[in-house]
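Problem statement: downstream parser choked on a complex file, so we are re-checking the raw output for the zinc ion run. The parser issue turned out to be on our end (a line-ending mismatch), but while we're here, posting the original submission so the record is complete.
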Amino acid sequence: MREISTIIEDVRALKIFNSRGEETVEVEVETVDGLGVASAPSGASRGKWEAIPFPPGGVEESIKKVEELIAPKLVGMDAEDQESIDETLREIDGTENFGNIGGNLAFAISLATAEAAADSHNLNLFQYLGGNLDIELPLPLGNVLGGGKHARGSVPDIQEFLVLPVGARTFEEAAELNVKVHRKIGEILLKKNVGFNGGRGDEGAWAVNLSNREALDVVNQAVEEVSDETGRECRFGLDIAASSIWSEDKGVYVYARDGVERRPQEQLEFVSEVIDKYRLIYVEDPFDEEDFESFTELTKEFRGKVMICGDDLFVTNRERLRRGIELGAANAIIIKVNQIGTLTEAFKTVKEAKKAGYVTVVSHRSGETTDTKIAHLAIGFHSPILKSGVLGGERIAKINEILRIESVFEGRTKLSSLQIR
Ligand code: PGA
Ligand code: ZN
């Protein structure tokens, strides 16, 4: 029998659309014995230090660069040599932030390459990345109500209200609990006189005309009721996406829906009070992306109990994470591969985060495709949490992929145990 070959034979790129109807890129990497297909998500509340999604000429320019520059270099290389592939992408680009070829293109090539290597060996991507014996499934962190840049009109300023089914015993149970909380919120909102008509934002979370406080109360009620009804504890958290409401000029966080402005110290007090009052288990980006110091203060206060998570703060960047580790800023980190551009670099950030005791949260973006690779990344990286929404075809695609894995590998999977340090 001839040996399996993971040598790349072709790299093709195609323009497709994401869940917001924006143009994005899908890449196919073909090896002698396998195929990988990956498409890139896009953010709406992007961090200042992220990779540039696409070059000035947009998706078309990225695709042209695949044909003219990238494919000729990658064909003949070994898809198993992920690090060389990713370094080659860096070299071809020649900038710090993938400004020439686009971070989203780099992401799609990098992940399609990994999948092509896995497929050549007839393995699932998660097995290829993270082994086959000890399959840890992440807890799903699900967006149930939202506002900010992910919705339109009069909605809460806090971008995401997120449920975490900590009492679930299996992934199936966890996914079901998230759906139950989402549904329960819909029922509560229908009974309230707030003009609710079933509208949802970019990530499938309810978008409704509530103040931030009212929204907290509604989610809290739903989480408590579902916990009581099922006997399985659900908790919730927030992604404040504070860089989106930070006014550099005025030096305040602007809560436009509530008509309130908070100075950094007041923001710190507000967030602490909300964590205590609602027993939050997770708070993402409670401060502006440059304010490591406030992250440090909040983390000090809640260490070991609450995940204080950096998204725009860290942008999946190892250097920025190192700064956080030194300062004791945050104890959890969002991992979005397209923030940094390549699988190799994201993996290095994950390794560093784990070593320092940070919880890693592999995450979707607000503009997604039906690509399911982040489900595989979460398992392969042994990430305790996958943040991928509750409803919407492009969100549920990731959840369903893990349900398939839980079913196919029955008896060999376990739900990840979350340790907050
Ligand atoms: P995004 O942000 O819109 O940039 O994907 C989502 C998030 O802040 O987690
Ligand atoms: Zn975020």
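For whoever reads this later: The pocket of zinc ion (ligand 2) is lined by residues 239, 241, 284-285, 311, 334 (CB under 6 Å).
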